[in-house]
Here is the input.
Amino acid sequence: MKQDSAIAPYDTAVTAVVLPGTGSDARFAHDAFAVPLQGRGIATVAVEPDPRGVVASYSEAMDRAALDGPILVGGVSIGAAVALHWAALHPELTVGVLAALPAWTGRPDDSPAAASARWTASQLRARGLESVAAAMVESSPSWLGATLSRSWRSQWPDLPEALEEAAGYRALDITELRSVTVPVGVTAAVDDAVHPLDVASEWVTALPFASLTTVALDDVGTDPSVLGEGCIRALDPATRAKRAIATR
Here is the structure.
């Protein structure tokens, strides 16, 4: 069977472990990545976050999957940051990284995504889930409201702690990004104020083997798999660049 060219260099027996963003769930991560990966013969494991220890649950899932050999890792927002950090620690176990909507570089400080997560956590503690979820649905695009209504309820009552953990997560900084040896495909939304395009561009500029594609948020709402497809398309030239260096 003919493979799609985007990931044709990879062993199609490889597994991709994909991680949700802050407050999101495995279903959205699956919707974002599974179809484009399946089209290339790659199985997807979408990780359900443990709101009592989000990063630990992500790391443990990647550790387990890598027991059978090298894997693709990826995620959305904080999921992308955790996946990239794991890949930096385990380059021999990482085929590549699929990074959708990166939110910040290094310390979160006052990045929009971290500020939003902290504010939401405080509101949840003060007003409760139903009131805050209703306000979120009213102020969000319909697809995002539906997604977060589902995932927030699944993580309640530990959701505020999960949001605060994400808001305090230290991603790789510029110096650390420059030392990453695995290929990385990055996709950003051109109109997403919470996950700025500038952050994705910063990652791609610093990473030795990386490429960037872009989408619009409306496209994500219509079909979340545009995120995964974009990451896979970006991963192809990043992989070729790494292999060109290796064969010199």
About this structure: The first helix runs from residue 26 to 38. The chain has two domains: 5-107+170-246, 112-164. Confidence is low (pLDDT under 50) at residues 1-8.
